[in-house]
Design a protein that fits this description.
alpha/beta; Rossmann fold; four-stranded antiparallel sheet; 7 helices; 33% helix; globular; binds adenosine-5'-triphosphate; binds magnesium ion
Length: 225
């Protein structure tokens, strides 16, 4: 069974208005469990739009998306929220951490909504931060850390609810090459532990580290199916 599959998905923003944009135009993609793929393509080609659909952050105008065999187009908002929370970890270029919270609190946050007891939350968050070499930064806030450190916190946060997928949009985009390599090494290690990983990147060096490269152009997949 595919981990994620999409069948003929279209995303049209501002449909039937002068500002209409056909961001995805009939995308078919199948990602197997345990795969590590990268999505590349010019700015505006639809990469982020596709990733948002795969992660159930947004819904397609047309077509179906299957996550672990479930057609998510048939789910209600609250059911989609459960899938996002339990199955998917998101990592963004600009980290999206909460500045008023420490690393530990940022990593604990997704667990709050998952019914995990406070003491277990603390223990789990500490373990996850240790996994990304941040055992010395439990009580530090994002503005007191480097970009690489912040991205590692955001990976720890993405892992909080034991996701089966990690979706990362330009995870190395704000980092220098050394920190970028470090993040890729962490993602590769997580993939060895059987997490399916999909990243979007502009950087060919980053893209090549995936098992498969999917190329997008003008809202379509040109290569890598
Ligand atoms: N919320 C939105 N409303 C209207 N148009 C949008 C929206 N989001 C994206 N678009 C448009 O959809 C197209 C695809 O955008 P998308 O963000 O998916 O591209 P991308 O490949 O991720 O680009 P980049 O490499 O610059 O991040 C672009 O023409 C963009 O302007
Ligand atoms: Mg983008």
């Amino acid at each position: 069974m595919d981990a994620i599959a999409c069948k003929n998905i279209w995303k049209i923003y501002n449909k039937d208005t002068p500002a209409e944009v056909q961001a995805l135009r009939g995308v078919n993609l199948r990602v197997k469990k345990g795969e590590f793929i990268s999505i590349v393509g010019r700015s505006g080609s639809g990469k982020s739009t596709l990733l948002n659909m795969l992660g159930a952050l947004d819904v397609p105008t047309k077509g179906s998306i299957f996550i672990d065999g479930v057609n998510i187009s048939t789910l209600k908002d609250n059911q989609l929220a459960v899938i996002r929370r339990k199955k998917i970890g998101f990592v963004f270029q600009s980290f999206n951490l909460i500045n008023s919270l420490t690393s530990l609190e940022n990593v604990m946050l997704p667990m709050v909504f998952n019914g995990i007891s406070p003491s277990q939350r603390i223990e789990k968050a500490k373990n996850l931060l240790a996994k990304v070499d941040l055992e010395k930064k439990f009580h530090t806030r994002p503005n007191k850390m480097s970009g690489g450190e912040n991205q590692r916190v955001s990976i720890a946060r993405a892992l909080a609810n034991n996701p089966t997928f990690i979706l990362a949009d330009e995870p190395t985009g704000n980092l220098d090459s050394k920190n970028g390599k470090n993040i890729m090494d962490i993602l590769k290690k997580l993939n060895k532990d059987d997490i399916t990983i999909i990243i979007v990147t502009h950087d060919p060096k980053v893209a090549r580290q995936a098992q498969r490269i999917v190329r997008m152009s003008d809202g379509k997949i040109m290569d890598g199916l």
